[in-house]
Amino acid sequence: GPKAEPPGPKAEPPAPAAPCPQRCRRAGTLQSNFCSSDFVLTGTVTSVSRGPPQEPGWAALSVLGLYKSGGLGLPQPAQGASLRLQLPCRLCPALRKGSSYVLMGRLGADGAALLPPDAFVVPYRPQQQQILGNLSKRPCRGTP
């Protein structure tokens, strides 16, 4: 049957939602990750805050291009909009202030934009714009 919870106040801090993996690695390509991600955008990191170990970090960025909004609620056009991304694991994906990236992430249950440790994040290169633009025109259905 169901186990009864031991009595007493729960004083333990909540466990981090996504513990950091042993090694931060991303799998796949722009193309293979596009459909499996909730949102896809390019942006320049304006600040990164990494709080106490039990708490997620945050990255603030200025949006360069939005290819899949996934319910982020960004204005159109999104260029220049600022966005806060939650980093459940503070170590990865590694983001540097002042650098620009292609960011593919997920939307949390509360509507917050998340970059989980396995999020596909790569340094932004201008030639990716065309690839992302093409991907955004294709429907995401069935097998990619």
Automatic annotation (TrEMBL):
Residues 20-140 form the NTR domain. GO terms for cellular component: extracellular region. SUPFAM superfamilies: TIMP-like. Residues 1-23 are annotated as: Disordered. It is found in: Secreted. Residues 1-19 have a biased composition (Pro residues). The keyword Nucleus does not apply. It comes from the Eukaryota. Keywords: Disulfide bond, Secreted. Pfam families: NTR. This is PCOC1 endopeptidase. It comes from Irena cyanogastra. The lineage of its organism: Eukaryota, Metazoa, Chordata, Craniata, Vertebrata.
